[in-house]
Amino acid sequence: MKNETYISILIASLLFPAAFWLITFVDYPEQVNATIGITILAMPVIAFSTYKILKNK
Question: How many CB atoms lie within 10 A of CB 29?
Answer without folding.
Answer: 9
